[in-house]
Amino acid sequence: MNVQTRSDDHPQHRELAQISPRGRTPVSPTRVLLFDHTAQLGGGEIALLDLIQFFDRSRVMPIVLLGADGPLADRLRGIAELHILEISPDVLHTRKDTLGSSSIVQLKTAFNILAYVLRLIDFIHTHNIELIHTNSLKADILGGIAGKLTQTPVIWHMRDRITEDYLPKPAVHVMRKLCRLIPDFIIGNSAATIETLQLKGVRPSMAVASGVDIRAYEQPGSSPLKTSNTNHKVRIGLVGRICPWKGQHIFLQAAADVLKRFPETHFQIIGAALFKEQQYELEMHELSRTLGIGQAVEFTGFRNDVADLICKLDILVHASTTGEPFGQVIVQGMAAGKPVVATNGGGVPEIVVHGTTGLLVPMADASALSSAICTLLEAPQTAESMGAAGRERVLGHFTIQQSARKVEVAYAQVLA
């Protein structure tokens, strides 16, 4: 006799059925506040934007609150209920890599934090918020305090590695303490990110990869990699915010070496500087000229058609010099069927299967990076098979639909 199991009997589906408070099947969707301090389009903000679009609206009503207006707000309008509650400039523009005990205890900053928390409390009450989901370190602190004071459950979505190679030592100490005190649940964008929190079992957590909408990468891309075809100029790209730890300088140094062996190769740096890092971007333009490769390197600047540009690449490179919390751009490249060369740190090994979907190299090693790129250029069939395997891996593990369902499970666990 065949026994059929209803989809509702799956453990994950049972949890989703209990997404409302006190374990009741919801009559109306749970009102979730998704809070980010910035409206700039960093990696975490793009991941949040993607996530919001794929929530099951019969279960989750996303209410988005940003601490500033900007490009993220522009993209969210018409997608979700959006509110702007402006954060004072001294709090908003403090960079996470400059955080320390002195910046944390400044009297003016402390006063502005308190004032903002009071405004958040009013917002939570006015909009009948049932759950707070914060999306950045500043939002974690502000939203976490407001959640505690209103007895509203709080989920911190950690998209930063809490380590001394990523943040100042005082900030690392403070954030690890707060992780064990404030949130009811922690989502990390990788197992590596969660490990850096040193939770010691005090708080429940879940790793949820920043998935991609695979449909955006189903368009025809470049032809298979053929270095012997004089009509096909090989295109190699690095995608992401231009800043020192993203390793654009390493990419350019590697490009100079690759061009000695494959002089027709074209390199793209896709992205722009954010958060007061424009000086580094200017230095990268100068470095390309100093290396004598200016004609072979294109700086595209900020683009809204990143998926299109990735689909036209032959190889996608990730060159971060510090362990990446996750590495969403790597997933994007794999979704487009591109072989990837990535630095081996942080959450990246959770994405790339070395030798199968791409190649991993040591961080901050231009020689190793150029060698790996040349390995793929010398073996186009291997590169093509890696690209195909990478796309299959994304379909199995890194789609935005999978990410949204996992986040909904986390909501259910907190509210049960």
Structure description:
It is a single chain. This protein is α/β, with parallel strands linked by helices and 416 residues long. The chain folds into 2 domains: 30-95 and 105-211 and 400-415, Rossmann fold, CATH 3.40.50.2000; 214-397, Rossmann fold (3-Layer(aba) Sandwich). It is built from 16 helices and 13 strands. The chain has helices spanning 11-16, 43-53, 71-76, 89-92, 101-104, 107-126, 137-150, 169-179, 191-196, 248-261, 278-290, 306-311, 328-335, 366-378, 380-397, 400-415, and strands at 30-36, 60-66, 81-84, 131-134, 154-158, 185-188, 205-207, 235-239, 266-270, 297-301, 315-317, 340-343, 358-361. The protein has a 7-stranded parallel β-sheet with strand order 3-2-1-4-5-6-7, sandwiched between helices. It has a 6-stranded parallel β-sheet with strand order 10-9-8-11-12-13, with helices on both faces. α11 (278-290) links the parallel β9 and β10 (297-301). α6 (107-126) crosses α7 (137-150), α10 (248-261) packs across α14 (366-378) and α13 packs across α15. The model is unreliable at 1-14 (pLDDT under 50).
- The percentage of residues in β strands lies in 5-15%
CATH homologous superfamily heading of the largest domain:
Glycogen Phosphorylase B
Oligomer: single chain
Query: How many H/I helical runs?
Result: 16
Q: Report the principal-axis shape.
A: globular
Uncertain segments are 1-14
Indicate the percent of residues in helices: 40-55%
Question: Average pLDDT value?
Answer: 90
Q: Radius of gyration over alpha carbons?
A: 22 Å
The secondary-structure class comes to alpha/beta
- Number of domain modules: 2
- Biggest pleated sheet: 7 strands, parallel
Distance from N terminus to C terminus (CA atoms, Å) equals 35 Å
How many strand elements?
A: 13
Tell me the CATH topology of the largest domain.
Rossmann fold
Order of helices and strands: HEHEHEHHHEHEHEHEEHEHEHEHEEHHH
Which CATH class of the largest domain? Alpha Beta
CATH architecture of the largest domain: 3-Layer(aba) Sandwich
Side by side, the strands of the main sheet go 3-2-1-4-5-6-7
